[in-house]
Every structure is written in C-alpha cells, then in structure tokens.
Task: structure prediction
Amino acid sequence: MGENIHSIWQKFVLDGHRAELSGDTSASQVHSTIAACEEYRSAIDQDWLKIADWYAPGSKAPRGKDGKHLYAEHVESLEITPQ
Result:
C-alpha cells in the first residue's frame, strides 16, 4: 500500500515539475492544490480580526440570520409571480 501511495505522489510531483518547465501550471494538481491553500490562507488572514474575538474564552460569536431566513430572502429576491 505504501509503495502505491508513494508512486502516486511521485507522479503528482513529476506532473508539477513538467508543468513548471512548460510554463503552464494551470493543469497541475500540485500547483492547483498549492494555489487553493494560498487562497484559503489569505482569506483567513484578511478576515481574522473579524472572527478572532469568537475564540476568546467566554465570548460568543455574533449571530446573523439563520438558513431559513436567508433562503426566504433569496426566494423573495427571485420575484417569482404566482400563476
């Protein structure tokens, strides 16, 4: 099992290296994963001050609208007319 996983990872790395050499990393699984992780990290960094207080001992996260109300607002925004 370990050798199989190792060969899969070796293929990912080789594909990523070939993508770098060709100058097109958009189709590389490795580069796509790294880019997704970077986007996630950036989003957390940018919004951290908004959510950081939620993790302080004894604090409570502010509650917005629940899913039921958000869905109702969405349906209303569609302006569906009864037939």
About this structure: The mean pLDDT is 82. The chain has three helices and no strands. Residues 17 and 23 are 10 Å apart (CA to CA). The two ends are 60 Å apart (CA to CA).
